[in-house]
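Database export, one record per block. Field names are fixed; values are copied verbatim from the stored entry.
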Amino acid sequence: MNSSHRTRSVCAASVIFLSALASASAWAHNPVASCKAVGADKVLCKGGFSDGSAAPGVTLDVISYDEKVLLPGKLSQDSTLEFVKPDQEFYILFDAGPGHVVEIDQSEITQ
């Protein structure tokens, strides 16, 4: 094998290795969120990532079905947000960046 072929082989192997590392790290940080009812009129949501890391400061908005933001929010230091249930139908959007979004419909809120 001449040096030109060897160099291309090493480069190709490096690209494959780095791609594998990048895809593994992408899988390690999937967003997770859950919401539960607190009494009759409040909801408590908690967000984080699949590797167990917290998500303080990450956006968690309450949005109406006609796409109006009813409550713009950010997760607190303990990665939670509590809010009063809106009078209209809504869903919760946990947005940790492009490709890292979780939507929770009001019907999915546990008791």
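Remark 1: The radius of gyration is 21 Å.
Remark 2: Residues 46 and 95 are 12 Å apart (CA to CA).
End of record.
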